[in-house]
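Quick one, tokens below. Sequence please?
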């Protein structure tokens, strides 16, 4: 069964004129575009996509391992990630994005993530979108207390993809 994933090109990707190059990579990898639209994202949609009122979501941000952390360390991480998500909401709301549904494989979500790379562009291999086009890093964004600019968003799991497609495309 063909699985769907949800992707958007973040404002830095649009401003840097990377839209064509990014779409080309997905198509050349054999994926089909099921829907595609540019929009100025509204605050309500952004805060549902990146929620500030969900502790579990905030602790899981950036896919870092929280196993074995003390209560105090978890609280520090929560406070840090709360600030990151507040900055993230502003970053994603700072200009037009290009949202899309990608489909065509049984493992579309995982496959798209392999094309996109890791959350931190500096840790993303060459040949991935974030590895090739990302000019930011956790090291830099941590120093400045903000979210990392990494060009694209891609769903992390099939369940996330389903919820995100509903949120952004109302299907
Ligand atoms: P991804 O987009 O790779 O799935 P998350 O969903 O965990 O990553 O985080 C959402 C976004 O928040 C990331 O794309 C990135 O822009 C930002 N972000 C996540 N973790 C961090 C972090 N530790 N420092 C700075 N920015 C972060």
């Amino acid at each position: 069964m063909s699985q769907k994933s949800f992707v958007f090109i973040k404002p830095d990707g649009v401003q840097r004129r990377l839209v064509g190059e990014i779409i080309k990579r997905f198509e050349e990898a054999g994926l089909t575009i099921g829907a595609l639209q540019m929009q100025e994202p509204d605050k309500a949609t952004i805060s549902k996509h990146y929620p500030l009122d969900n502790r579990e979501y905030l602790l899981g941000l950036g896919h870092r391992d929280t196993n074995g952390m003390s209560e105090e360390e978890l609280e520090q991480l929560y406070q840090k990630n709360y600030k990151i998500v507040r900055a993230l909401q502003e970053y994603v709301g700072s200009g037009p994005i290009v949202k899309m549904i990608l489909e065509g494989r049984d493992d579309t979500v995982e496959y798209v993530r392999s094309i996109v790379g890791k959350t931190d562009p500096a840790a993303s291999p060459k040949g991935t979108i974030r590895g090739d086009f990302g000019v930011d890093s956790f090291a830099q964004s941590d120093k400045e207390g903000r979210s990392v600019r990494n060009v694209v968003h891609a769903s992390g799991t099939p369940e996330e993809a389903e919820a995100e497609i509903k949120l952004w495309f109302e299907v």
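The CA atoms of residues 51 and 57 lie 7 Å apart. Residues 61-63, 84, 88, 119, 138, 141, 147-148, 150, 153, 156 surround adenosine-5'-diphosphate (CB under 6 Å).
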